[in-house]
Model the fold of this input.
Amino acid sequence: MRSERTQLPLLASCLLFAMVIQAMLPLSSASLQVGYYRYTCPKAEKIVKRFVRKAISDDVGLAAGLIRLFFHDCFVRGCDASVLLDPTPENPHPEKTAPINDPSLEGFDLVDKVKAALERHCPGVVSCADIIAFAARDATKIAGGFHYAIPSGRRDGRVSLAAESMRDLPDPTFNLDMLKENFAVKGLNLEDMVVLSGAHTIGDSHCSSFLDRLKPGVPIDASLAASLKKKCPSPASGNVTVDQDVVTPDLFDNQYYKNVEAHRVLFDSDNALLTSKKSADLVSIYARDQTIWQVKFAAAMVKMGHIGVRVGKGGEIRKMCRVVN
Ligand code: HEM
Done:
């Protein structure tokens, strides 16, 4: 019979072994996981990246569209691809029809193409919510940002309401307190908000989103205001689009923060970052150190990607991203 002395180390190694095995297993339904499709669809992330790269090489503006799509998905009912659902007779006003999304939100066709390829490759496995998350990650890198690992395993939701997009997404007229509150409700703090706003370093905006700011008394750089007035002369030009970052419009760099400091930004919500010492200090740090911002942006995207996710048995894996199963 073994002595107690020999039994103790044996017990300890058994425990250690069990812990190691547990760490290697997929994290059950409790949380998202980097490499979630490792065994079930090993090429999933590669396939997404291939499509995203090709689509952005055909249309550089799509990088911005995909990053915004992820934000607009996650802030409304969590990252569950509810933003992708099309209107139906039972639900004529899903999220994508809300004025905050329509006609400005992009990326739907690309997601359809990726989903079709993934369904051919491994049917019924990869969620539309994860496709959005992977595509936003890849778009960030392709446009000049850092690569980051994004945990996956999100499941798709079955409910999508335009009214919730209007309620949950921030408006460009928001001041700092409103922005802080809007992000806090989603579990994101002031720094996350300042960091994520840096996405406005690429992409464009419809004139209608900032026309109200082209009047005297608004803190906006005079030469930017003059050029915007030319491009957006009246409310009738609401559908015209302009670059958000006039210096490096398609590059995912820290130019946005330099623009904020110079009041060369489009929205009250951008300018609001200068209205508290804490947020203005962050703007100054990111304007001076691109690497710090890139690292924090990646971390904030991962954090945003956890908002309200469904895992395990919640939700479903849609067969087509525009309709529930
Ligand atoms: C802080 C609060 C925010 C407000 C008020 C806001 C508002 C807006 C507005 C009004 C537009 C222009 C829409 C149009 O008229 O075409 C826009 C564009 C954009 N936003 Fe935001 N946004 C915010 C935060 C974010 C976040 C957190 C992200 C992503 C991490 C993001 C990514 C983008 C991108 C990439 C575009 C350009 C889209 C394109 O070119 O297709 N925004 N945003």
Observations:
- The chain has a mean pLDDT of 92.
- The pocket of protoporphyrin IX containing FE is lined by residues 61, 64-65, 67-68, 71, 104, 106, 170-172, 174, 179, 193, 196-197, 199-200, 202-206, 209, 267, 269 (CB under 6 Å).
